[in-house]
Amino acid sequence: MVKRSAHFVLSIMIGIMIVLSSGLYAQTITGTFTQLTEKDGLSSNTVNSILVDDLGFIWIGTYNGLVRYDGYEFKRFYSDPNDPDAIRGMVTGNLYEDSRKNIWLGTGPAFIIRYDPVARAFRSYDIDSLLTPQLGQAPINGYYMNDVCEDDRGRMYFGISGPEQLQNGLIYIDEGQDQVQLFPNSDTRPLQNVYSIKKDDNGNIWLATNSGFFQIDREGKIKRNGPFNAEFSAAGDWRILRTK
Asked: Can you name the residues that pair with 104 across neighbouring β-strands?
């Protein structure tokens, strides 16, 4: 597929986000915006996340599954219990493209999904066994993957929250391994409901959780932080600034 122009991608992205997320206001938008709805092939008008991958495809996570848009039509990905390469789960959360061009996402009730664009196949990781023992029983609406981040070694981090407070909401997968694991809690505070994960320019991983901000250094050691002065280079990333 030929990579789309930046103007095209930006126009479609903004159009989808505004039109599908702004209710009545969206109906007044004219000009270069294109309104894309279920009538055009979108699986749901409730959009949770949008990602433009390295090839220019637009991936859209919705309340009714995952879709991919090539600028002309939507491709919907369905769960199929008889197909081991099919996606699992329904409600789609955060989307992320790693350095190897794999697409990562979370789906309900309790799955982390990796899409391999070369094999054109999905790999599903069931995280229920890691999280539900913390709550005593599985939540009716499952868990939500709030954020994804890759460190300099290729380790993937996933920030998870539940309807009740998890005592450890940080899951990771090491490069070259094929299993999900809970990251060990800090000695001072548990990693309760991880909402945001970002990497700074020095390769440190920063976490925003219900129990505060944490830093994982390049050696994989974690500590809880008070004053902050880390800045992130990627446009749109939140910044942690030193307070005085």
From this structure: 96, 114
* pLDDT digit string, tens, across residues 97-110: 999 999 999 999 99
- Smallest CA-to-CA distance from 91 within 147, 48, 45 is with 48
Quote the longest CA-to-CA distance of the chain.
Answer: 58
Burial label for 117, CB within 10 Å (0-12, 13-18, 19+), is: middle
* pTM reported for the whole predicted model: 0.80
DSSP H/E element including 144: strand 144-150
Nearest alpha carbon to residue 111 among 82, 86, 83, 75: 86
Tell me the per-residue pLDDT of 59-77, one tens digit each, with 9 for 90 and over.
Answer: 999 988 999 999 889 999 9
